[in-house]
Design goal:
Order of helices and strands: EHEEEHH
Strand content: 15-25%
Helix content: 25-40%
Largest sheet: 4 strands, mixed
Shape: globular
Number of domains: 1
Number of helices: 3
Radius of gyration: 16 Å
């Protein structure tokens, strides 16, 4: 795995992420106002950047577990292909409810 340096999320970096001029890899370490964390994604519609922040007193396992759960919930990284099946399930549920 290539070395990816920690990126400081400054207002200018957040602006670049929001407009798609800068792309980070899911899992890349970032630092910001809330401390250190692992980048998840930037929503292209709203421009919101999602990060799994490391909480004070966290050990490696709890921080990694929280990041993994956030990836599964947000269909980030290797969980991205699961979104198509979920989208179809939601469509069928809406059709059955109507």
């Amino acid at each position: 795995m290539p070395y990816l340096p920690t990126i400081d999320i400054t207002p200018q970096i957040a602006l670049l992420l929001r407009h798609g001029a800068l792309r980070l890899q899911p899992g890349q370490w970032v630092s910001g106002e809330k401390g250190r964390g692992r980048y998840l994604r930037t929503d292209p519609r709203t421009g919101v950047t999602y990060v799994s922040w490391v909480r004070p007193g966290d050990d490696w396992q709890s921080a990694a577990g929280r990041f993994r759960r956030a990836c599964r919930k947000g269909f980030v990284g290797k969980y991205r292909p699961l979104y198509e099946a979920e989208k179809e399930r939601r469509r069928r549920d809406r059709a059955a409810a109507a």
